[in-house]
Design brief:
The protein has seven helices and six strands, in the order ααβββαααββαβα. The radius of gyration is 20 Å and the shape is elongated.
Length: 185
Amino acid sequence: MFTYFVCSARWNSIADKDLTEHERARIYDKVNACYELAEQYLGRQFPRPQITFRKSGKTAGTAFLNVNRINFHPLIYKSNQDSFINDVVPHEVSHLLVWQCFGKVKPHGREWQSMMSQVFACAPEVTHKFDTAELKRNTFDYQCACGVVELGVRRHNKVLKGAQYRCKRCGNTLQQVKVSETNAA
């Protein structure tokens, strides 16, 4: 029997609200299947990760290497279930397996690519192509010479505390667009 751990009651309540027991079980089963396949292919056992379900921007999944944990975005899963199961789960499991086999290497380097393609027969895609337009995300408009750039809540709050961000293209310091400026346009 495969045992799954969730880091906190807060994450449990998020998963309970966003995913059904059947949906969570489907993800757990795929993680377990990935580990069994890797163990058979690599000829060794691996400790199973903690699995959490937490909304994390537009990121479908995140592997936390040092603590052997994977977080999955429940809303991205709900709207892309088959692709999520077939692509995101092996992607994140590969990160943990590569960490355990090779230690610190490039996140999407040749070891990870090899794990994805040889062990899981998946294309080693670095990012997902899911439609995330429906994910409600608070953003704030900032202006540079290139145009308007959106910053998330975390960076916006840092700006309010005195941090400055520069545009990667033009190098200008981003300036917040006032609400009245966007309404006037």
